[in-house]
Structure prediction request, 387 residues.
Amino acid sequence: MTTPPVWNRQRLRSNNEWLLLERLRTSGPASRAQLARASGLSKPTVSSALAALERAGLVREAGTHAQSRGRIAVLYEPDPRAGHVLGIDIGRARLRTAVADLSGTVVARTEVRNRGRSATGVADTAVGCAQQALAEAELTAPDIVHTAVGTPGVFDRHTGRVRYAVNLPGWGRPGLVERMRERLGTPLSVHNDANLAALGEYTFGAGAGSRLFVYVLVGTGLGMGIVADGELFLGAHGAAGEIGFLPLDGVARRGNLEDAVSAAAVVRAARERGMTGPLTAKRVFDAARAGDAAARDAVRQEGERLALAVATVAAVLDPDLVVIGGGVGRGADLLLATVEDALHRLTPLRPRVAAGRAGEDAVLLGALTTALRVARPLVFDRRTEYS
Prediction:
């Protein structure tokens, strides 16, 4: 038999304070009377809890509200200055970092090209980018409650290494994550970039409100994040959504879906159709918009193969929404019609398919969201322990 929790006065007070703090965070500024009605707590309990939260620096006055008979009520809101978090997006082409306060407001942001010639160089450049963001926010490492890092591949908590990051050579080398943690001087967690992008798109973009939402990240590689009832689904070993490894013999060079659905696949298809010169996926999509026949055919092929990925996902997960994002995903205006037409040929299971709204910041927004989910209860526990 398990031992039931001990419900003492201190724990009850703490639970009431957390309940009110979360109510203010999710519903906006409120008065004591409004909080009492919304929470079911008595007005004296609400007043006592708000006083404790204010002493702890977790809430602050946010103005006043006119009530009946000319009375004025003080409004309260969470104090965003109670802590800060750091998000880092490590991509093959770009490194992005952002600092946010506890309300989720970004107070500093930096972005640089990923010019690292080695895994160590990439890690050090990412740390330098983050330190620049901290300096711009006039903060130091001790001000950061938690740092969340988005990266291709799957982080193995047991070995401390990143696996399957095929587009970042050497990224699975031992000690890289610990090197970043030590150089930053903050608590740090590492997450798959597609998972974070899914969380960012769910929180800030097209996925909001979906019961089962899938984000397909198409860029240098191919990945997928799954959000069920607001929570990431990671699988038994953290590799859920690694659809780039799906076998596709006869279509891709190495037999994997990632080789058929990615930025490199778009460029390869364009060259096979006669396009020349320095090509990128963006240039191919731009040419397709301008009416270039070879480019349009290459983009059509990308859409048809992407539809195969969506059809596979629909059969396994039955999502209500699939969002296309990433670098290639920015060409969704050209891809979506082809994807939807191909889905009608491939399967009777046809989830709604939409373009991402979070854009190139989807991974970064997901990193901040993840860091905030860790930081908010930590800050609450630390500040209320002795208040």
About this structure: The chain has a mean pLDDT of 90.
